[in-house]
Inverse folding.
């Protein structure tokens, strides 16, 4: 442990794979992980048609620079997630995973992926029935409760 205080990482959306990778690389240092609608399953990575405009040579000149950057990141995301597949077993932290079953941005299929890849740590899996992608903004008090629970 780096410090006397437990280290809890929170990852929403694209932040999910980031906290996962940190916990994979530093299993003895991370006490808890709170995944909020994370984009972690390479087989269910959404890529909307409009994003392809930012990557295509004939059309990227008409897209805003931010859209081009996001499109390039999105294009590479599934391949980067594939690189993590064999590392999920390295996670030793307590885990709470939360996902809305009506998430239109990160598919709810990520829930089953997390159940499988994190089964060795017996995660607290929470389905927000009717919930969308914006858990940290809409459920701030609940997020605080989940963090407190992981810190115990």
């Amino acid at each position: 442990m780096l410090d006397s205080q437990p280290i809890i990482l929170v990852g929403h959306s694209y932040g999910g794979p980031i906290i996962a990778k940190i916990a994979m690389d530093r299993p003895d240092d991370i006490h808890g992980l709170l995944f909020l609608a994370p984009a972690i399953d390479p087989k269910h990575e959404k890529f909307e048609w409009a994003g392809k405009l930012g990557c295509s040579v004939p059309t990227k000149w008409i897209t805003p620079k931010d859209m081009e950057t996001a499109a390039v990141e999105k294009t590479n995301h599934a391949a980067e997630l594939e690189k993590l597949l064999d590392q999920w077993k390295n996670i030793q932290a307590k885990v709470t995973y939360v996902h809305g079953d009506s998430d239109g941005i990160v598919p709810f299929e990520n829930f089953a992926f997390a159940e499988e890849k994190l089964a060795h740590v017996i995660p607290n899996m929470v389905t927000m029935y009717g919930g969308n992608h914006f858990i940290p903004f809409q459920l701030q008090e609940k997020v605080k409760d989940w963090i407190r629970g992981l810190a115990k």
Q: What stands out?
A: The longest strand covers residues 94-100. Helices lie at 15-25, 49-52, 65-83, 110-117, 135-138, 140-151.
